């Protein structure tokens, strides 16, 4: 239960920070390009890379790793977890799985959003 609470608190922090940063950036750069979300995704990837880089160098406890990576980074952007998992597949030599994961995630994700919107037209 302690782990779930740590992840929940981290997710809250990350989610609030995502909203504030994304909105702040998007309001300063009025553009059709979603610069706020794009920036959040890149910062989230950098942050999760730093967290896992630190955990490889020092003995970061599983609780801290879950709080920081799953909680804060996951609440901030799940794109960071997607990128970390993709990189892990490449590093393990699982090239086919890496490209499959990346392409299927993007294509099926776009399709699922479209399908969800389409389904609501019938309600």
Structure description:
- Helix content is 85%, strand content 0%.
- Helix 2 crosses helix 4 (79-91).
- The chain has 123 residues and is mainly alpha-helical.
- The chain folds into 2 domains: 2-92, no CATH class; 95-123.
- The chain has 5 helices and no strands.
Order of helices and strands: HHHHH
Q: Termini, distance in Å?
A: 39 Å
What is the count of structural domains? Answer: 2
Strand % is: under 5%
Structural class: mainly alpha
Task: List how many beta strands DSSP finds.
Answer: 0
Largest β-sheet summary? none
List segments where confidence is low: pLDDT < 50 over at least 5 consecutive residues. Answer: none
Kindly state the mean pLDDT as a whole number?
A: 92
Count of helical regions: 5
The helix fraction, in percent, is over 70%
Overall spatial form: globular
**Could you tell me the radius of gyration in angstroms?**
17 Å
Tell me the layout of helices and strands.
Layout: H1 2-28, H2 35-57, H3 62-76, H4 79-91, H5 95-120
Quick summary:
This protein is mostly helical and 123 residues long.
Provide tags for this entry.
0% strand; mainly alpha; 2 domains; 123 residues; 5 helices
């Amino acid at each position: 239960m302690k782990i779930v609470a740590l992840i929940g608190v981290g997710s809250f922090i990350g989610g609030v920070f995502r909203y504030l940063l994304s909105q702040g950036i998007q309001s300063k750069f009025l553009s059709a390009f979603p610069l706020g979300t794009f920036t959040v995704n890149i910062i989230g990837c950098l942050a999760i890379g730093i967290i896992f880089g630190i955990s490889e160098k020092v003995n970061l406890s599983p609780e801290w790793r879950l709080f920081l990576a799953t909680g804060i980074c996951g609440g901030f952007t799940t794109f960071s977890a997607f990128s970390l998992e993709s990189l892990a597949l490449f590093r393990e030599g699982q090239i086919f799985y890496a490209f499959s994961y990346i392409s299927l995630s993007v294509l099926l994700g776009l399709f699922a959003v479209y399908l969800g919107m389409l389904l609501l037209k019938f309600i």
